[in-house]
Design a protein that fits this description.
By secondary structure, the protein is of the alpha+beta class. 35% of the residues lie in helices and 23% in strands.
């Protein structure tokens, strides 16, 4: 039996290959970790920008707990496949609540998820809508991010909105859909309605 240690009996090419594989694995792991951290950071940055956009009077934002029976689950029975992501209370310099910002995702957009943040004053008036994920068809569904569509929600105080496919809205709770983008428009309305319902029924319960 050879007196050489088992490590010395391993051919050098095998050792070299093993070292290369180990180094490559560690490098890939580091890249994945850095990428994952960057994605999380960018998402948080986008969320903070959305909060400021819908509640410009707020100086600080404090997270509102999402009930465990809602977190990660389809929200309610009236909003399609919509989820509540998170909610924050916007506070002024003196600590008073100026409104709430609720992030919701409707998974029934034409091209996938539609994620937005809705600002709601304490009296239930909607302040603004800001998109954090919208990858709908250019020239059609992407028009949901244009003022002509999303500004219809601003300043209204209703329990929920109704989408009119053919336009001609007159009532405060009626929203004219984007022409040729009914699916995208409906996803937005579902996400907004879910956020409004969350504010009205879940915050402070």
């Amino acid at each position: 039996m050879s007196s050489k240690s088992i490590f010395k009996r391993i051919p050098k090419p095998v050792v070299t290959l093993a070292l290369i594989s180990l180094i490559a694995g560690l490098a890939l792991s580091s890249v994945f970790t850095l990428t994952e951290s960057a994605i999380a950071y960018n998402k948080e940055l986008a969320a903070q920008e959305a909060y400021r956009a819908v509640l410009p009077e707020a100086e600080t934002f404090e997270k509102v707990p999402v009930p465990v029976d809602i977190e990660g689950q389809v929200y309610g029975d009236s909003f399609g496949r919509t989820f509540i992501n998170e909610a924050v209370a916007g506070k002024d310099a003196s600590g008073g609540i100026v409104g709430y910002a609720v992030s919701s995702t409707c998974a029934e957009g034409y091209s996938g998820n539609v994620t937005l943040t809705v600002g709601v004053k304490p009296d239930g008036t909607l302040t603004s809508v800001s998109f954090t994920e919208l990858k709908e068809t250019p020239g059609k569904g992407m028009l949901c991010d244009e003022p002509a569509f999303k500004d219809q929600f601003v300043g209204r105080n209703v329990p929920a909105f109704k989408l009119l496919k053919d336009g001609g809205s007159e009532a405060p709770d009626e929203i004219d859909g984007v022409s040729g983008a009914t699916i995208s428009s409906k996803a937005v309305v579902n996400a907004v309605n879910a956020a409004l319902d969350f504010c009205a029924t879940q915050i402070g319960r």
